[in-house]
Specification:
The chain is of the alpha+beta class. The protein has helices spanning about 1-15, 35-80, 85-115, 125-135, 140-145, 165-180, 235-245; strands at about 125, 150-155, 160, 185-195, 195-205, 250-255, 260-265.
Length: about 280
């Protein structure tokens, strides 16, 4: 009986936080069957509560998209009739609308990543293409800020990936690097081999992260950056969720050679993913 009880405890410990199926009664001692039934009921109530919370976040974010888009258009229209004294206030208003729009989009993405029941879109994508696209999409932003953004990739690092959301992971890392790197700084995006794995590094010369904040950088809405730098605190949380879902290792560390941050994504190269 104790052996069967140990098996029950092991099965319970191995369950995913998103598991919805009830705990099996097979090989469960009769004496703890009522406990098993109570646990299944608790799991059901917990899952329903989590599902309601996710639906609320998703629905609320979705409903906010239209009024924010309309508000953005109205602010632009207002700008055409403003004088010099009013333009500064309109620019601040426009910035607030832009930040709110970014937050809504990130909340929607976070809700989709949290929804374990949602189907995952599969695609056959080259890692080099994803890295190059993440850099290309941010070149104009980097140039506007006078940040030198460069790319170096290893031609031998041919890896096929199957989740298009990985592009979002890489884009978030590059966007973060640009956001926290001052004018005149540099950002190097490197794709290389590390043993049998592929490694993507985003190395910046930005402000760095306080050591006390490093353990919390993947927490939702947590921001370690100076207050004057815009951000929602969701970019790295989204990147971490995508990395975990795909079995990648995402690490963020301060540079040792100079000021700045190194973001690393270690991607296992399995046989079916290798060119």
């Amino acid at each position: 009986m104790l052996r069967r009880l140990g098996g029950f405890a092991e099965a319970l410990a191995q369950r995913s936080v998103d598991a919805k199926d009830p705990i099996s009664l097979e090989n469960v001692p009769l004496e703890i069957a009522p406990l098993n039934a109570a646990l299944n009921e608790l799991i059901g109530r917990h899952q329903n509560a989590v599902d309601r919370q996710r639906r609320f976040v998703s629905d609320a974010a979705h409903e906010l998209r239209t009024p924010l888009a309309a508000l953005h258009i109205q602010v632009d229209n207002l700008r055409t009739h403003a004088n010099g004294a009013q333009l500064e206030a309109i620019d601040e208003l426009n910035g607030g609308v832009r930040r709110a729009s970014v937050l809504v989009e990130q909340l929607l993405r976070m809700a989709r990543l949290d929804d374990a029941a949602s189907s995952r879109i599969r695609a056959d994508i080259d890692l080099k293409d994803l890295v190059a696209a993440a850099v290309a999409d941010h070149v104009a932003i980097a140039m506007k800020k006078d940040v030198d953004l460069g790319l170096s990739d290893d031609e031998t690092c041919g890896v096929r990936l199957f989740d298009p959301e990985i592009g979002v992971l890489l884009a978030n890392l590059v966007d973060n690097a640009i956001r926290y790197t001052p004018s005149g700084g540099t950002i190097d995006v490197v794709l290389k081999r590390q043993g049998a794995d592929a490694l993507v590094e985003v190395v910046d010369s930005g402000c760095g992260i306080p050591d006390a904040a490093l353990p919390r950088i993947f927490d939702r809405f947590f921001r370690a950056a100076p207050a004057e730098i815009e951000g929602t605190g969701l970019g790295l949380a989204i990147a971490k969720a995508i990395a975990d879902r795909n079995g990648f290792r995402l690490t963020i560390m301060n540079r040792l050679d100079t000021q700045g941050v190194i973001a690393q994504v270690q991607i296992p190269v399995w046989t079916e993913r290798t060119l």
